[in-house]
Amino acid sequence: MIYVDGDACPVKAEVEKVATRHRVSVKVVSNGGIRPSQNPLLETVVVSDGPDEADKWIADRAGAGDVVITGDIPLAARCVEAGARVLKHNGEALTVANIGNVLATRDLMADLRAADPFRQGGGKGFTKADRSRFLDALERELRAVK
User: Fold this and answer.
1) Which of 8, 16, 119, 126 shows a CA-CA span of 20 to 30 A to 87?
2) Residue 36 has pLDDT above 90, yes or no
3) 3-state secondary structure of 98
4) With the CA atoms of 69, 18, 8 and 86 taken in that order, what torsion angle do they form, in degrees rounded to the nearest 10?
């Protein structure tokens, strides 16, 4: 099973393409506003409004043998702890070996932003190279699960 944190996910089409090739079911989870796919392997799951409801839904279900697609680091940490394989949208794998550092960096950056309200800028834009890395990474993860 592939679980997709669907809110603001830029790689839903790529997930569908790779999942279809591997004949793996996908659950795209969000608070709504996502157009359902006609693909029988994809299910759109709409959870109630509220902070982190989609994250909670995924974390309660993901485990060993599953792949989770998310940019949400706390969700990724919960899924890694449950034994799931986790990929960020750019193809970066989040694992037992690196999730602690990723969480610490996220917290440090949040503290820096809070300390300097005039701090400008955001993350870099999502590129074709990121999309390509994601496709390769998802392919590898699904092969490893099989």
Assistant:
1) 119
2) no
3) coil
4) 10
